[in-house]
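INTERNAL AUDIT FORM
Audit reference: QA-55
Scope: verify that the stored structure record matches its stored sequence.
Auditor: D.O.
Record contents follow.
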Amino acid sequence: MCLGRPAVCFLATALLTSVILPALATENSFPFGSALVLDAQPLSGSKRLPSIEIEQDGAISFHLWCANALGTANVTDDAITIVPNRALPTQCTPDVLSRDAALLAALSQVTGWRRHGDVVDFIGVTPLRFRLMTN
């Protein structure tokens, strides 16, 4: 089909490449500024799920099972370092505070990340899977 019209084929290929390649790069790039929700079941009696949001400048906010916290993150092509700084005061049960502390500890041991569409896997001692909040 393209043998008689190489210019048309070139333009069609260039157009498709300019649309498809950026979409693929976005699908696999780190979703800075997006809410990432832990792929888990809510605790009994609650609808809340932990989420994190990492900004381009490395600022990170944690919305845990009960508490909220701030911190910093350093994200490269496939590596990540997460450092929780301070938890904001809250009134939670000891069990839920323990879960929050365990999740922060697991996040602080993450060394890598991988994205597949709306799923972001954090790789570390305890693998964690987050999903992009899309609603």
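Auditor finding: record pair retrieved intact. The chain has two domains: 1-29, 31-132.
Action required: none
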